[in-house]
Amino acid sequence: MVEAKGLGLTFKTADGDVVALSDVNLDIKRGEFVSFIGPSGCGKTTFLRVIADLEQPTSGSITVNGTSPADARVNRSYGYVFQAPALFPWRTIEKNVALPLEIMGYSEAERRERIARTMKLVNLDGFEKKFPWQLSGGMQQRASIARALAFDADLLLMDEPFGALDEIVRDHLNSELLKLWASTRKTIAFVTHSIPEAVYLSTKIVVMSPRPGRVTDIIESTLPAERPLEIRETPEFLEIAHRVREGLRAGHSYEV
Amino acid sequence: MGRSLREGSLVPILIVLAGLIVVWYVAAVLMNWQGMSDFYQRTDVSNVSFGQQLNDVLNAEKPLLPAPHQIVGEFWKTTVEQAVTSKRSLVYHGWQTLSATLLGFIMGTVFGIGLAVFIVHNQAMDRSLMPWIIASQTIPILAIAPMVIVVLNAVGISGLIPKALISTYLSFFPVVVGMVKGFRSPEQIQLDLMRTYNASRFEVFTKLRWPIALPYLFTSMKVGVAASLVGAIVGELPAGTSNGIGARLLAGSYYGQTIQIWSALLAAALLAGALIALVSLAERVTNTALGARA
Ligand SMILES: Nc1ncnc2c1ncn2[C@@H]1O[C@H](COP(=O)(O)OP(=O)(O)O)[C@@H](O)[C@H]1O
Ligand SMILES: [Mg+2]
């Protein structure tokens, strides 16, 4: 689904070059749930933005869904969930979910059907006519996930979508996200800086480290597909979490 | 919160108003007293009691500063007690000014929005056009208004259009400045979101820039509509025009009809208040439709 080879990106800034990504080699297969974890500034967001054609790499190559990121964007091959919900405050929740559908030219009837389906998927049915400010932060982020799901892109890019939420809400949304992933069979690239979150969700964990931003370890999860929240207390889970922590430590001098 | 604030502020406003009226009466007496004494002397009237002079001062025909009741009386006489088609009716003159104000305001708003759209979508335009737009507002309107009126008159255009053009000239400015700011107010994350949908510039405009700029539009329109009214009145000042509040002001000052001047000013103030209230109403209706917090 995503193939990066020797990918690099250097930002030219007023006070010198910032190497946000260097020599990233990564293969995300169809149907995988891949988490990116690492301290802030290690290029997680930048990598997602390169996939989404919001940033241009300065070296190496990358294909998304078999094409260039630009073509993938034009083909609407991915849905992007930003760190903040980025809902339009003047639109109701259903109108926010309808936004990509309007732009992509779906018919009125099809829009209605897709809004109903995705709102149900994220457990927001009943809140269609509310405005964003009438919803809690967690609900707003779910609405933004519904918006990214509405047009059925196979690839979902999520940049710390639950980063601003408290742990209880986060746990809940994590298990919902897993169910959603299982039922929709999408490929998900998920940025986080929480080790339990990465281990709980992923089939593959990409450990990154900063200055220069690079991939230091790629861990294939051995956890079963079916994951109740309690799985986080099993030895297997803790073993993977330990490996992630080791990877973070090895890649960088400071503790995470 | 808005509602209780509005109700709560009524009493203080009335108190301030009452205070102003008292001050006004005192000022009217003080300013006109000497004039009345001189008048008595010229007409050989003597032994006027204080009460008599006070009464005369407050009901003089051409006082330096008319008292509130004189202005209200004149206003009443020239609105309610006159046919609206009469040239002596303030309603007639008010409409002359109002129609030019509205036409000029609409043209100015449309022109201002158009310019802003152009500027926001055109880096070069921003740099080359904005200085001219700002420079245009540094020219005193009193200097160019007579030229506009006279020149257009010479080519046979008179009445409504020239006045409306001056209103346009004054009202497009706040709109263009406000809307450039408004159209540029989307956050990067919102623009990125639209980019992930591969949205066209037109879609970014209609679905993001326009709705996000609406609050700026209404703020600009409140300034613009007041400027339009000033423009229309200024357009009525040059010699030769005889219609509108501006003409009433000018005629009043020619003949020393201070009461007429002040009642024309009152009409202008009422018009301005009504126009701004109208824009505010439109703003409130739009805000409700766009999900603003109650
Ligand atoms: N637009 C930009 N211009 C310059 N530097 C940037 C820009 N975006 C990100 N960076 C820098 O690139 C590095 C990686 O950033 P980012 O991908 O946001 O990290 P993360 O998401 O892992 O916290 C950081 O050092 C950041 O300061
Ligand atoms: Mg980030």
Give structural notes.
The complex is a heterodimer of chains A (256) and B (294). Chain A has eight helices and nine strands. With 256 residues, chain A is α/β, with parallel strands linked by helices. Chain A folds into two domains: 2-77 and 155-250, Rossmann fold, CATH 3.40.50.300; 86-152, no CATH class. In chain A, strand 6 (155-159), helix 6 and strand 7 (187-192) form a beta-alpha-beta unit. In chain A, helix 3 (93-103) packs across helix 4 (108-121). The longest helix of chain A has 18 residues, at 167-184. Chain A is globular, with a radius of gyration of 18 Å. The two termini of chain A are 30 Å apart. Chain B is mostly helical and 294 residues long. In chain B, helix 7 crosses helix 8 (160-183), helix 8 (160-183) runs antiparallel to helix 10 (201-235) and helix 11 packs antiparallel against helix 12 (258-289). Chain B is elongated, with a radius of gyration of 25 Å. Chain B starts with a helix and ends in a 5-residue tail after the last helix. The mean pLDDT of chain B is 89. At the A-B interface, strand 5 and helix 3 of A face helix 9 and helix 10 of B. Bound molecules: adenosine-5'-diphosphate and magnesium ion. Magnesium ion binds at residues 44-45 of chain A. Magnesium ion is lined by residues 44-45 of chain A.
By DSSP (H or I, 4+ residues per run), the number of helices of chain A equals: 8
SS content category of chain A: alpha/beta
**CATH architecture descriptor of the largest domain in chain A:** 3-Layer(aba) Sandwich
How are helices and strands ordered from N to C of chain B?
HHHHHHHHHHHH
Provide the CATH topology of the largest domain in chain B.
MetI-like fold
Strand content of chain A: 25-35%
Count of distinct strands of chain A: 9
Mass-distribution shape of chain A: globular
Oligomer type: heterodimer
**Highest-level CATH class of the largest domain in chain B:** Mainly Alpha
Query: Which regions of chain B are unreliable across 5 or more consecutive residues at pLDDT < 50?
Result: none
Describe the sheet with the most strands of chain A. Answer: 6 strands, mixed
Give the overall pLDDT of chain B as a whole number.
89
Domain count of chain B: the total is 2
CATH architecture group name of the largest domain in chain B: Orthogonal Bundle
